[in-house]
Amino acid sequence: MSSGLNQTVVLHNGVKMPIFGLGVWKSPEGEVVERAVETAIRLGYRSIDTAKVYENETGVGNGIIKSEANREDLFITTKVWNSDQGYESTLAAFEASRRRLQLDYIDLYLIHWPVEGKYTETWRALETLYKEKKVRAIGVSNFQTHHLDTLLATAEIVPMVNQVEFHPYLTQDELRAYCRKHHIQVEAWSPLMQGHFLEEKTILQLAEKYDRTPAQIILRWDIENEVVTIPKSITPSRIDENTNIFDFQLEPEDITLLNQLNRNHRFGPDPDNFDF
């Protein structure tokens, strides 16, 4: 296993979160996701990220059991879906997710999207879960600075994490600066640009320079930017390959080169304009 998989960031409540993990978006429920999770944990991964809407929480839970890992060594994230948002409905959704995952507690629970008119009440439910020690950390996903402003106006607890789309075409500089100021850890989803990184010459050139895969260049760039990252894969060799990013560093000028690729381009939905 890569010893780098033990690297953590410390959230503002003191909880240590692995800087690298496995995402399971679009990983089919059942044997496929079970095998991916079991493989990842046996390779040394400690962080697994799922969500109610991925419809694979049961498989994730089974994969955790099959891995035979100590529960306290793992960091499991799931998220409340948009149709479940609101105070009481979020509490019920959390309990359903916890049961599907077959866990006594969740390490990180996130609001999946900033549903207008609902996310402040949803956040109140997450604060309740946190105070009741049913979760070790709470946070949000896909929140822009104005969503965070609205949330912080009434929140008792500042979110510990904001999980957003982040990659060389969408560097989110303003949002990341805001999160740094408020001690909110940024986490990347779709770090590999949904495969489009293979079309970017700069990334391919850097892969050649460092004798690494293009994916490893991007994932290393995430780590150098102190952004938690959770690439998704169901292929054992790729799950292993993605971890080989802790034994090299990108030179400062190459980090700058990657930063300059920013186009404010999203491959996923826009948090200010979604209808689900």
TrEMBL record:
Alphabetically ordered keywords of this record: Oxidoreductase
One GO MF term attached to the UniProt entry: oxidoreductase activity
Lowers pKa of active site Tyr (site feature) positions: K79
Domain NADP-dependent oxidoreductase: 25-262
Short name of any one Pfam family annotated for the protein: Aldo_ket_red
Active site: Y54
Family to which the UniProt record says this protein belongs: Belongs to the aldo/keto reductase family.
Entry protein name: Aldo/keto reductase
Organism: Shimazuella alba
Organism ancestry: Bacteria, Bacillati, Bacillota, Bacilli, Bacillales
